[in-house]
Amino acid sequence: MRLATWNVNSIRARVDRVVDYLERADIDVLLIQETKCKPEQLPLAPFAQAGYDVIAHGLNQWNGVAIASRMGIADVETSFANQPAFSKPGADPVVEARAIGATCGPLRVWSVYVPNGRGLDDPHYAYKRAFLARLADAAGTWAGQPVAIGGDFNVAPTPTDIWDEADAEAPTHVTQEIREDLVRLEHAGFAELSRRFVPDERRYTFWDYKQLRFPRNEGMRIDFLYASAAAAAAATGAAIERDERKGKGASDHVPVVVDFDPDRLGITGGTVISSPRR
User: Fold this and answer.
1) The domain 2-272 belongs to what CATH superfamily?
2) Which end of the chain is more exposed for a tag (fewer CB within 10 A), N or C?
3) What is the rounded CA–CA span in Å between residue 34 and residue 152?
């Protein structure tokens, strides 16, 4: 089973590239972030023609998450337990479209898009910290099942996960406290799999469009796939698909891929073990 996560930075603008990648890379399940559309606006036909079902959660032209699967989709959830809301000035708090979960074949998967944080003094940074804390709390309740959490975490966990920690665009990605917030997922029983197989320093997953960041390899490693112990034990390999940042119309992120041995993903007597729907 091949699982990937990818912040596509607008699915309507890049659907052809995404579907082409799914077929070329033989992806079974893709966790998608930053769809930037409502579910009814998502271009489903190209996915269907390629043999994929899609579920999506989006409220407007911002954020948005989705899952594309050729292994079936069941028990869909559009938020995790106690997912925090964000309050814009003069508006009611909203639980944004930043998480979607489903059972795809033998694996329970979650696509998450962690808030950017914007600035250290911005309310969005406190929201980011709360999101990571609540996600870790929820993950702790999933830890006994084969579960994978993939997405854009907007955190560079180590100094070598960013080209320059003084980058003006990323102060909320490199603080000690935000790095510790991300580590809470490990304390909840989840291991990050891409680094297990791709430990190299300066192997980034995001490069800003401006100032020739990609040709200069001035990027960040902020996209990850975490797995519970049951899922991690079945992992056999991983890759960061750097070449997907090349060419016309590329997203500023690239896919992160993990391969699993499906025979070790918790199938007992033909029954798929999955998290109960809340």
Assistant:
1) Endonuclease/exonuclease/phosphatase (3.60.10.10)
2) C
3) 9
